[in-house]
Design a protein that fits this description.
Length: 497
């Protein structure tokens, strides 16, 4: 006898078609235990079971296939399906409401975190695994590729996340390989490096399913993903996380030594704005590695090659960086005065209008709140029809939503301008720390430089005329007319390669 097995109807179909239970019978507590998908359940009851001489009995519903298929079985299957769909709809609504309130809707705790004993809904860094997460981000930010990171973690005998979860909680969801507890997969590290929860944010609705019958999770569109910042303690600072994302945006293929292109996310074409990609290969000598414009390679723009060798670019950037940092160390007062003056005209123009506009927007938002409240009172008292209320309230709410977006943009811009002095002071402090710079590294780029632009040679195909290079330093605002920070600070002779 095949006893009741709780599961989907596809499971029963595989068992029946395997003919292991030929000339047997199947008993269930009620018909819904066979399945709640009325199409598959009907297929089993009316076609598959009779075809293989399986007798189906549902005790509570009084169904026995030996007496023939009941006319009400199909209706019963439909209502069972409807019940499952209705339940799924209610659960989705509850999860949506939780996610929109900023509560985390995922069930898996990211590696590096643990539940807060005082509040199980909140996360706190795990003292055992949080340093490992931080180390992974720092290694990648310093130009170490994912394959090499996995090798380093394995060599140091750091237990993989799936094995750690199994040993600490008994969970097998990550398919732990206990025979290789120190094996780190590239996909594991890759997912960690793009997980925004490590900077203290809650990210909801990253995936979705189309219906309760389709269990496959699909990636959600960015506009449908909700992000709530600073909801728990961060393991990785935002600057490091953003730097890692910049690397991912560029070419991510490491070389034979497992090193990443240190310029990934920093190097751009000065003419079309596309990224410059590094060309290297087995037959190319390291000193001949060169960059080319991505728009020229893919023919997505009418740009030119912007060919420049990597070692030449290293020499230019390193020399310029040494000059600027030395000036910041040796003449800090002059450096600060000139740096703070850059963009001062733009800042003054912005502040004169932004503060006043911000106050006006905040006042208007409060006025709209009062208007909507009065409209609702008029609707309740009958002085306004529901249809008229819907039209008017929709218009006011739309205006309020647009004002809030504008207010957010202005506030972010003001905060960015306020951060300028802090960025200059931080640059000067770091210039004192990095006195010796024997060669250009990914760490130096991360600390001091925001962006590098390469322009085409003034004389095309010339072997003596170089490419103009524009370097934007970390303390420089993006709005400073695209001028190189070194030129703003020291007015040196423009260097080319």
């Amino acid at each position: 006898m095949l006893q009741a097995v709780h599961g989907w109807s596809s499971t029963y179909e595989r068992l029946v078609k395997s003919q292991k239970f030929f000339s047997s019978y199947l008993t269930q507590e009620d018909q819904s235990r066979l399945g709640r998908d009325y199409l598959q359940t009907g297929m089993l009851m009316e076609i598959t079971f009779p075809q293989y001489d399986v007798r189906f009995i549902a005790v509570n519903d009084g169904v026995d296939s030996a007496n023939g298929v009941s006319d009400f079985s199909g209706i019963k299957n439909y209502f069972n399906d409807f019940y499952a769909r209705d339940t799924s709809r209610k659960i989705r609504a509850v999860q949506r409401a939780k996610g929109e309130r900023g509560e985390r809707v995922g069930t898996t705790i990211p590696y590096g975190y643990m539940k807060n004993p005082d509040n199980p809904k909140r996360f706190i860094p795990n003292p055992e695994t949080a340093p490992i997460v931080k180390k992974i981000f720092e290694m990648y930010a310093n130009g170490i590729g994912i394959v090499k990171i996995c090798d380093i973690l394995s060599k140091e005998q750091i237990v993989s996340p799936s094995v750690y979860a199994f040993k600490s909680t008994g969970s097998k969801s990550g398919h732990p390989d206990l025979t290789r507890p120190y094996h780190w997969a590239q996909t594991t590290v890759r997912k960690m490096l793009v997980n925004q929860e490590y900077v203290g944010d809650t990210v909801n609705f990253k995936t979705y399913s189309k219906s309760n019958k389709l269990k496959k999770r699909l990636k959600n569109d960015p506009e449908n993903i909700l992000i709530f910042e600073n909801t728990h303690e961060a393991i990785v600072d935002r600057k490091t996380f953003e730097l890692v994302q910049k690397h991912f945006a560029g070419r991510r293929r490491p070389d034979k030594q497992g090193e990443m292109d240190k310029y990934a996310g920093y190097l751009f074409c000065g003419d079309c704005g596309k990224r410059l990609y590094l060309h290297r290969g087995k037959t190319i000598k390291p000193e001949n590695n060169a960059f080319q414009c991505g728009g020229f390679q893919t023919r997505s723009t009418d740009c030119t090659a912007h060919y420049i060798r990597e070692n030449v670019l290293d020499q230019i950037v390193l020399h310029n960086l040494k000059t600027v940092t030395a000036y910041a160390r040796e003449q800090p007062e002059e450096f600060y005065a000139i740096a703070i003056q850059n963009g001062e005209t733009e800042a003054k123009k912005f502040y004169t209008t932004a503060v006043r506009e911000k106050a006006q927007i905040e006042k208007r938002i409060k006025e709209l709140d009062n208007i909507i409240r009065c409209l609702y009172e008029d609707r309740v008292c009958g002085r306004l029809t529901p249809e008229r209320y819907d039209v008017m309230s929709d218009g006011y709410e739309q205006e309020q939503s647009e004002l809030r977006q504008k207010l957010t943009s202005i506030t972010e811009r003001i905060n960015e301008m306020d951060m300028r002095e802090m960025s200059i002071r931080e640059f000067m402090d770091k210039a004192k720390s990095y006195v010796e710079m024997p060669k250009l590294t990914a760490e130096l780029l991360r600390v001091f430089i925001r962006k590098i632009e390469v322009y085409e040679k003034p004389e095309k195909y010339s072997r003596t005329c170089g490419n103009p290079i524009v370097i934007h330093y970390a303390f420089q605002l993006p709005e400073q007319n695209g001028m190189p920070a070194s030129e703003n600070v020291m007015r040196p002779i423009q260097q080319t390669a």
